[in-house]
Amino acid sequence: MCAAAQTQQQQSQAKNQQPAAPNAPVPNAPVPQTAPPLATVDGPVTPGQGTTAPSTSSSSGETTVPPPPAPAAPPPPASRPQGPPLPSSEQDLGRLVIHVNYVQVPTVVKDAKGRWVAGLTPNDFAVYENGQHVNLAFFSTDAFPLSIAYVIDQSLPSNIMDRVNASLGAIQGSLTPYDSAAVFTYANGAKEWTGFTAGQSARLPAVLALAKATGSDAMVPLNSGPIAGGCAVMQNGWCMDPNVQRGGSAGDSSFITIPKEIHTLNDAILAAARQLAVLPKDRRKIIYVISDGKEYGSRATWKEVVHYLQANNIAVYGTLVGESAEWGVGFIDRFHLPFTMYDNVLYKYTVATGGDLDTQTGTAGIENSYQKIAAEARNQYTLGYYSHTSIYDSRFRTIDVRVDRPNLTIIAKRGYYPSGQSYQ
Q1: What is the reported pTM?
Q2: 271/282 same-domain check
Q3: Which residue among 4, 74, 181, 189 is buried most deeply as judged by most CB within 10 Å?
Q4: Domain span at 129
Q5: CA dihedral in degrees (325, 326, 329, 334; nearest 10)?
Q6: Interatomic CA distance for residues 283 and 110, integer angstroms
Q7: To the nearest whole percent, how much of the chain has pLDDT over 70?
Q8: pLDDT tens digits for the chain (424 residues)?
Q9: How far is CA 76 from each of CA 5, 38, 73, 80, 290, rounded to the nearest angstrom?
Q10: Do 263 and 363 sit in the same domain of this protein?
């Protein structure tokens, strides 16, 4: 009995000393879980190698790379209101053009004494285009910002030029901070001194001071007699100065052709109008001429310049000085004799474009005219209507503005030419 019990005890101890099975799970222990792959990479991140997936070797010795997990689907976009389709190419990024037939007519109404008449209503106005009545679609008495191109005549006589030079310092006082101004001069050709600058800038008075000139005095013409035609320098029997050479294109053997005065007013107005035409439409475009109105020697004709002004809604105002400003003489200068110089073409510009003209002879009067004309151009009745004429009809269209009250003077443009810029 003792030997058997001892043998059974030894077998039990040997059984307890045997190692446990290698794959036996540990009771009550958590099962290890594999971490999910990153959503932004295709495989595990290996230091020094980036996002390369580990390779596995098959029994044949080949290396296979497991496919990356499929990325998660993005969330659906939030619903939003649908707008107009976007342009498909750069050619579609153009400016939207709307064809309309809207016409704007600035109008000044004066009484018999030349004073501005206020307090009128839309019912007091009647507008006719090409003789046909049109209904007003817009009416306003608000002041408009001005863009004024000052055109100064430098071919004036020296005594008149001195008065104009002394008055130029008062120009800035007639402008507001919302206005802009440019300066042009002319004698034998037009010259731009500055483009459009702020009305209250320091540049404007500095440029006006530089634009002063001495003027020109015409000598007593002599085209006959022993004194006429005196030539100090001769060459081969001909005078070096063709203006005093007898015969040929300058005359014949008995007289000398006197050179004509040059006053390129048309060219100067056209140069100023080209700068005004590119300005925004919300500004009232004005050309202010300080001159005696004489015109001769311009390349551009009066009809060409007026056509350009009427097509771009530009009005010509002016201060008439010199002989044309004198009583009686100024009225006669409006008439033109064939084959002679225009003595006052400025009056025709103001009538055709809806501007106004002030005649002054002294320095104080010229200074006051700057304020008067600028205030008149800024504070006008603004009438607007839709034309009944087709936008493809490029012919001139007459405008007739009437006020149902007696003894009133209506200042408005006589008509206009439709242009492509008006419909953009």
Answers
A1: 0.68
A2: yes
A3: 181
A4: 96-143+379-424
A5: 20
A6: 23
A7: 62
A8: 455 555 555 655 555 555 554 455 555 555 666 666 655 555 555 555 555 554 544 444 554 555 555 555 555 555 444 444 544 555 544 554 444 688 999 999 999 888 899 999 999 999 999 999 999 999 999 989 999 999 999 999 999 999 999 999 999 999 999 999 999 999 989 999 999 999 999 999 999 999 999 988 765 555 555 554 456 566 666 666 655 555 544 455 555 555 677 889 999 999 999 999 999 888 899 999 999 988 888 999 999 999 999 999 999 999 999 887 776 555 555 555 554 555 789 989 999 999 999 999 899 999 999 999 999 999 999 999 999 888 788 889 999 999 988 899 999 999 999 875 544 3
A9: 79, 21, 9, 12, 71
A10: yes
Closest C-alpha to 256, from 281, 234, 229: 229
Query: What does the buried/exposed string (b/e) look like for 140-163 if buried means 16 or more CB atoms within 10 Å of the residue's CB?
Result: eeeebbbbbbbbbbbbbeeebbeb
Residues 196, 285 contacting (CB under 8 angstroms): no
Residue 222's identity, in one-letter code, is L
Are 189 and 153 contained in the same domain? yes
Q: Which SS3 state, helix, strand or coil, does residue 134 take?
A: strand
| Euclidean distance between CA atoms 284 and 315, whole angstroms | 9
User: In this structure, are residues 320 and 330 in contact, taking their beta carbons and an 8 Å threshold?
Assistant: yes
Q: What is the CATH number of the domain that holds 252?
A: 3.40.50.410
- Spacing of C-alpha 67 from chain mean position: 65
Q: Please name which of 188, 125, 118 lies closest in space to residue 379, comparing C-alpha atoms.
A: 118
Say how far apart CA 346 and CA 323 lie, in whole Å.
13
Residue 157 tokens read as 């006589």
Q: Tell the residue number behind the tokens 């002319």, with chain if given.
A: 186
Residue type, 372: K
Q: Are residues 311 and 367 in the same domain?
A: yes
pLDDT digits (tens, 9 = 90+) for 332-389: 555 555 545 557 899 899 999 999 999 998 999 999 999 999 999 999 999 999 998 8
Classified as helix, coil or strand, 413 is coil
Both 383 and 244 in one domain: the answer is no
Tokens 């030539």 correspond to what residue? 231
DSSP 326-378: STTHHHHTTS--TTS-BS--HHHHHHHHT--EEE--SHHHHHHHHHHHHHHHH
